[in-house]
Design brief:
The chain is α/β, with parallel strands linked by helices. The protein is built from 15 helices and 30 strands. Helix 9 packs parallel to helix 10. The longest helix has 20 residues. It starts with a helix and ends with a helix.
Length: 605
């Protein structure tokens, strides 16, 4: 009897301890749409009432709630156990309950708008290829005047000339948003161009704790560069005499709709204790809060250069759900397809009510050919702002100069710590793409005392050449070019080479061609919906950049720039956002389906 009683009391003591030890995760509880009958405080009170059936105390319920979505989206985000989430999902009024997914994006302009038909100089036949009743498109759209483009990303660098409000009129009366203050960002950083800015960090903090001030700003300010780049591509002002580091691509920088207004929604943050080059992270609950606010604030277009690691079913797709509520209010959401190509079935953002954008090239190249010791010239491209001190240097393949123990299948990849300095010093090293970051390969060559490096495409990358602002003389070559270089190295005892200084070349053909990194269909969520919808320039795009970030985002890079090259469907997405803003300005009565149709069915040959 004593044993039974003892066990009974032991269970009473252990039960709450065991319950508290069950891992809690953030779940999003989705009810659908608000009916507009309740005040904001009533909505939150209703959301909290659902905790009564699953939480032990009022205090626990209060600490569990992360967001209450109160405007268009009806739902909440909270820390729940799997059992609690299951109980809520069984309630009749609950549409779906799904765990928050943590999204990481990474690289997930001058010339680009001119290439698609938009001359970037005001008053000089802009969009001269696309006439509408005798008047060019950009002029008829009044440069996107008073259209509001929301950008959900990593924030903005407001001091960039691309965000000047000089000569702009009053803020549109339809705008209902705010300028949220925070670290290194106050109300004066908003203006008639950046008319609103907010940040969303509760989901991030529930996972990682407080934002590290050395890694990101707890405010709408951008410490990464990605958000500034996308915002300026969509709606940056026209800024003359802009060039990248080294003077490449000099010209007039402009967004697609230079007189459109910008509303910034920062929902993406630096990953703690990781290099910025690894990308940022964006939590589902933070993004849903941002989209809920953007809809209520009155944006016309919402540009989202964010993708999920893998396609999600519609009822668990945060961006898709937010975009559905936006669509009901005739707000067009434009999203990236992702950078996981060329494998099939890899695209993100497959929902039919948003525009999914792939990436393609421009007719601009940065020629930096390799001259081999046998006189053969291999076409290469580079925006590295450094030149070799003499004409010829010894040439080696990375796989021949690695330290012992590097696995055979990655010997040529120039991964961190893989190269032997005694065998690399004073030489040009050929590295191959496949594993690791492109810039990181150059940093490894520099660490091993190499004087320059050649980045050879894998067969998967083919002819797509992404140009990076490397920290040493460098050039990128195609797969076929790389094979020819390796054949030369193996044909002689003392191979030598020269990397020619890069130069900007316009009207390069063929262009456009699809970037190999673009995520592809078929749409694995619903094969009946063809995706991506459209392509736009996304390879080697020059646009504004955060001066708190280096051009490569590597910790070894201490340079600072105002404008920077970047590649990805993250760059192509805001091109379509800018074009959509022009159509909205010309046809304010058009549905988002009409705008999407017009964009997808218009071409120039």
């Amino acid at each position: 009897m004593k044993i039974i009683v003892s066990c009974f009391f032991l269970n009473l003591i252990l039960a709450p301890l065991l319950a508290s030890s069950v891992e809690k995760k953030v779940y999003i509880v989705y009810f659908g749409e608000h009916n507009g009958e309740k005040a904001l405080d009533e909505i939150e009170k209703t959301h909290r009432s659902y905790f009564d059936s699953v939480k032990e105390s009022e205090e626990e319920a209060k600490s569990s709630l992360i967001y209450s979505y109160k405007h268009s989206i009806n739902g909440f985000a909270a820390k729940l156990t799997p059992d609690e989430a299951s109980k809520l999902s069984g309630m009749e009024e609950v549409v779906s309950v799904f765990p928050s997914h943590q999204v990481k994006y990474s690289a997930q302009t001058t010339r680009s708008w001119e290439f698609v038909g938009l001359d970037e100089r005001e008053g000089q036949s802009p969009w001269n290829k696309f006439k509408m009743g005798g008047e060019d498109l950009l002029s008829k759209a009044k440069y996107g005047k008073d259209i509001i483009i929301g950008v959900m990303d990593s924030g903005v660098w407001p001091e960039s000339p691309s965000f000047s409000d000089e000569g702009m009129g009053p803020i549109p009366k339809s705008w209902k948003g705010i300028c949220q203050e925070g670290i290194a960002f106050n109300s004066s950083h908003c203006n008639k161009k950046i008319i609103g800015a907010r940040y969303y960090v509760k989901g991030f903090e529930s996972q990682f704790g407080s934002v590290n001030a050395t890694e990101d700003y707890l405010s709408p300010r951008d410490m990464d560069g990605h958000g500034t780049h996308t915002a300026s591509t969509a709606a940056g002002r026209q800024v003359s005499n802009v060039a990248a580091l080294g003077g490449f691509a000099k010209g007039t920088a402009s967004g697609g709709a230079p007189l459109a207004r910008l509303a910034i929604y920062k929902a993406c943050w630096a990953i703690p204790n990781q290099p910025k080059a690894d990308g940022n992270t964006c939590f589902a609950e933070d993004m849903l809060a941002a989209m809920d606010d953007a809809i209520a604030d009155g944006v016309d277009i919402l540009s989202v250069s964010i993708v999920t690691p893998e396609p999600l079913p519609y009822h668990q797709d945060t961006i898709g759900l937010g975009a559905l509520h936006a669509a009901k209010r005739n707000i067009l959401v434009v999203c990236s397809a992702g950078n996981n190509g060329p494998a099939p079935g890899t695209l993100s953002n497959p929902a039919p009510w948003l525009i999914t954008v792939g990436a393609s090239s421009l007719d601009r190249a940065f020629f930096a050919p390799v001259i081999l010791g046998n006189g053969l010239e291999i076409i290469g491209q580079s925006v590295a702002p450094y030149k070799l001190k003499k004409d010829k240097y010894p040439l080696v393949y990375a796989g021949d100069v690695v330290v012992p123990g590097v696995p055979q299948n990655i010997t040529g990849q120039c991964l961190p710590g893989s190269l032997e300095p005694d065998k690399v010093k004073g030489k040009i090293v050929v590295c191959t793409r496949g594993v690791g970051l492109r810039v990181g390969k150059g940093i490894e060559v520099k660490r091993a005392a190499g004087v320059g490096f050649i980045l050879a495409n894998s067969q998967t990358n083919g002819n797509e050449l992404s140009c990076d602002v490397h920290l040493l003389p460098a050039t990128a070559v195609t797969y076929d070019g790389g094979i020819k270089i390796l054949e030369y190295i193996n044909s002689t005892k003392n191979p030598i080479a020269m990397i020619s200084p890069a130069r900007t070349v316009l009207h390069y053909k063929p262009a456009p061609f699809m970037a190999g990194f673009t995520s592809q269909g078929p749409n694995v969520v619903d094969p009946n919906i063809l995706k991506p919808d459209i392509t736009a320039p996304g390879l080697n795009i020059l646009a504004a950049w955060s001066e708190a970030s280096s051009p490569t985002k590597f910790p070894e890079d201490h340079r600072s720039v105002k404008y920077n090259f970047f590649s990805g469907t993250s760059m192509s997405c805001p091109h379509v956002s800018g074009a959509a803003a022009l159509l909205r300005a010309i046809h304010p009565d058009w549905s988002i389906a009409a705008i999407k149709s017009a964009l997808m069915t218009t071409s120039n040959t």
